[in-house]
Design a protein that fits this description.
alpha/beta, 18% strand, 12 helices, globular, Rossmann fold, 365 residues
Length: 365
């Protein structure tokens, strides 16, 4: 049975959540998050960035781990070069403020994002006594950009990282594509994922339904190559109800700076590979069977799905309501809770940080 919650501004300000018609009083306060005037992520220092975001500032020291990379699936229609068999995984490992840790939280980003956008969540969790590990998935951020990706390969990278860090049990917090990887990881390693938090996760529907054509890897790649600054801006802005420049423009600047770099084509191929994965490896068929206690925290105004450009107009209206799908699935899971955040889109931890942090801390507690 799912506990269904709608977070309102009044509930956040009062420090309480409405649960099944009752008020659950909170014995903690949510630490401060970046102020409303600060950009969601730093601006790049110049007009050009390497595809490894080499000069781009992250909120904590970045470490690297060499990992094997093998991405094989029947829907991958090309041969990856030999150099892609090894990859470098970037991650932050942030200790708790307190001497005694309450456990480990793994924060995993979405497709058009990277680890630096978790800054406020990192601070909230570490102030509450959690060790916070924040990887850039292979294919994103400061990590290597291969041309083939699968959910299994990304789970293997994360398992290798956690083995290296000697982490046997952890809470997985995943946003968007990170949520999809969290569901695959909870299925593959149920003994290690003791709690699963899914923030507007991708993979709750079959994105192939409604497509007007078979979309190939090269179609996604060409879409990426051809995007103008205004198109990128519109794309990022659709994630948010509140389209403040501080939420949109820094991401646009990073994407444009990468596009001016000499290795942009490798970034394009990796981004296309990620979209291939989203299209071909949704979690909808198995998510309801996951045994880990699971929190869905979703912006109620989100309408994000893969392949909008290639979806028939008559099919578009029924797609991408992540909150409704999450609520329906949570009701069929043994240990699940749904939290809906009104007037918020695809990224609650940026658009409504206090509501997001309150829900997550309550669930982890």
């Amino acid at each position: 049975m799912v506990d269904s919650i709608i977070v309102t501004r009044r509930h956040v300000l009062n420090g309480a959540l409405a649960v099944g018609g009752l008020l659950m009083s909170s014995c903690h306060t949510v630490p401060a998050v970046p102020s409303d005037g600060e950009p969601a992520v730093p601006w790049p220092d110049g007009d050009t960035l390497g595809i490894g975001l080499e000069s781009y500032p992250y909120p904590h020291p970045v470490h690297y781990l060499d990992v094997p990379h093998v991405a094989q699936a029947d829907w991958i229609d090309r041969q990856a070069p030999d150099w892609e068999r090894r990859a470098r995984l970037a991650y932050m490992d942030v200790p708790p403020d307190s001497a005694q840790s309450k456990g480990v939280v793994l924060l995993v980003h979405g497709k058009n994002f990277f680890g630096a956008y978790w800054t406020g969540v990192i601070e909230t969790l570490r102030h509450k006594g959690f060790r916070v590990i924040v990887p850039d998935l292979i294919g994103w951020g400061k990590s290597t950009k291969p041309s083939t990706l699968t959910a299994a390969s990304l789970v293997t990278h994360l398992r290798t990282l956690l083995d290296q860090l000697k982490v046997d049990s952890f809470a997985f917090v995943g946003h968007s594509t990170g949520g999809l990887i969290g569901m695959h990881m909870a299925r593959a390693l149920p003994e290690r994922v003791h709690t699963l938090v899914l923030e507007n996760p991708m993979g709750l529907e079959d994105y192939r339904n409604g497509l007007t054509q078979q979309v190939r890897h090269e179609d996604w790649a060409q879409d990426e190559r051809a995007m103008t600054a205004d198109q990128i801006r519109q794309y990022i802005a659709h994630y948010f109800v509140n389209k403040e420049p501080r939420l949109v423009e820094p991401f646009v600047a990073v994407r444009m700076a990468v596009g001016r770099g000499p290795e942009f084509e490798r970034w394009v191929q990796s981004s296309a590979a990620a979209t291939d994965m989203l299209l071909n490896e949704p979690a909808v068929d198995f998510v309801a069977s996951l045994a880990s206690p699971t929190l869905f925290v979703c912006g109620l105004s989100d309408r994000t799905y893969v392949g909008a450009k290639y979806t028939a107009p008559q099919a578009q209206g029924a797609k991408g309501n992540i909150a409704e799908m999450a609520k329906w699935l949570a009701a069929r899971m043994p240990k699940a809770r749904f939290v809906g955040v009104p007037n918020v889109g695809h990224v609650p931890h940026l658009e409504a940080p206090n509501a997001f942090s309150t829900a997550v801390l309550e669930f982890l507690r």
